[in-house]
Amino acid sequence: MHILIIGAAGMVGRKLAQRLVADETLGGKTVDKLTLVDVVKPEPPAGYSGIVDARESDLSAAGEAKKLVAGRPDVIFHLAAIVSGEAELDFDKGYRINLDGTRYLFDAIRLAHNADGYKPRVVFTSSIAVVGAPLPFPIPDDFHLTPLTSYGTQKAICELLLSDYTRRGFFDGIGIRLPTICIRPGKPNKAASGFFSNILREPLVGQEAVLPVSEDVRHWHTSPRSAVGFLIHGATMDLDKVGPRRNLSMPGLSATVGEQIEALRRVAGDKAVALIRREPDEMIMKMVAGWAPGFEAKRARELGFTAETSFDEIIRVHIEDELGGKLP
Amino acid sequence: MHILIIGAAGMVGRKLAQRLVADETLGGKTVDKLTLVDVVKPEPPAGYSGIVDARESDLSAAGEAKKLVAGRPDVIFHLAAIVSGEAELDFDKGYRINLDGTRYLFDAIRLAHNADGYKPRVVFTSSIAVVGAPLPFPIPDDFHLTPLTSYGTQKAICELLLSDYTRRGFFDGIGIRLPTICIRPGKPNKAASGFFSNILREPLVGQEAVLPVSEDVRHWHTSPRSAVGFLIHGATMDLDKVGPRRNLSMPGLSATVGEQIEALRRVAGDKAVALIRREPDEMIMKMVAGWAPGFEAKRARELGFTAETSFDEIIRVHIEDELGGKLP
């Protein structure tokens, strides 16, 4: 089978490609071709014996979506987006990439469907940013869409398009509302949500990290490994069971920053915890106050999506997947 | 003040213009100019002493939105849309008119805002079609968006855009989720929802009407007069009280078809009721089963929106506004 990953150079995209290569199959079928696309040319995954077509492509540019669909991939993972902060700073770019790019893709599939009956599975990554404060806790599956950012608005609109294009039979779509991914591998970055990962990842390797909010802040997390698991499950599950409501809040772990820190203490000791420097940041505290504390995710759990149930587990996943299985 | 009505040739648009002419003012300010726009040139309302600019314009055509915004109207009522049935039959046309047309308008306002600080009030008519079965009764204000038609999807997307453009400060928007309008004046039409009006309007003037569903079907109604009242209130109310969640399910009357018929009996007697011919239509019954039985509309009521509280009242409004105050 032929799999297309749009946004393949990003953290989740790279891990998804690695997982597909390691599994060799998806839903029982051999993965014999991977098309990997991003605005920078993705690295082909190591150890893959099938065909890799790695391409630089901007989905929002004229004609690009048609080219991606021309190869008639069986499964399309659409992960490409510019992030929340950038979509807020650059209004035009956010709508162009996150909304128009997605609509071009969906329409290219629709036209291919109308031409020859093509009907791929489309797995789309949405976000918990489709909701914004005030929020109940836990947020039920039937809670309305209340984004407070342009990024969240764009994701919510793409969710609605995905449901409608699916209902019309142009493709078989599923929208995966990802929790905040923790622990994000790599270097600390300036994303407002970065500290949730920084305060664990850096101390685990003996580095200092800054905590800009109070310990009672509650948020909604899942590991990179679980995020990839959601995408694989979305690509292989029986979608007839999902019905017309195709966008699902994924399961995750609702935890306070204090609970994150206690998990770090259990896994890596007081010495690691001592590396967290408290440096309150009013702007970040204000932003975080509007974020989701946690979802019920009842439908997704019933449909077989699974995630970590403790922060100890999230930290161990990081140690296994990023640190070779042991602390330095 | 200068008021623009897009979709001014439609039933609600015509009644809104008539109301503005009768009132002479909006929110305490004299209405000295009306720009009336539709895909067919709207009739100027009778008895108006101000300036009327009535134009044929397709909002989804290049450059049209910019022209409409060039006159810098203080209030924009955006009522234009192709209806549910047509949007379902013609996918491209539905998205072009109902989604792209609205986005062109919003973007033309945004560019004008960026150019000179222009910031009009925008009153947008959304629809109860943003939800679809299975539905609770009554549907709470925080129920999620679950459209089961392309029309409902397009309205839901425009709601999200309206909230985001308002949040960014480009205009001050309010989305009005209209109930099904009953009694629609005019001739019976082929809309699947037409019978809700037909079974009252036709018997009131001694004509036969067809009822295609059973008497226990429950739906959500408001009169044309109340619909215009919602738009006027949306154009004049203090929007700071609304906060960032700018799309409101309007109040209405939840009633079964049987309750409609009993109201007809009270107002016009058994002879009128005898003119309703039962002719079950499986297709219409199936469609109607997915429609909204009624909304809580708590926020809208608290914000001062009001509607009829009995079907007798809805029928009397029709007699006053369409039949000169008395039955023939």
TrEMBL record, chains A, B:
Signal peptide: none
GO molecular function (one): oxidoreductase activity
Span of domain NAD-dependent epimerase/dehydratase: 3-208
Nucleotidyltransferase listed as a keyword: no
Keyword NADP: yes
Keywords: Carbohydrate metabolism, NADP
NCBIfam families: ErythonDh (NF043036)
Name of the protein this chain belongs to: Nucleoside-diphosphate-sugar epimerase
UniProt organism field: Pseudorhizobium flavum
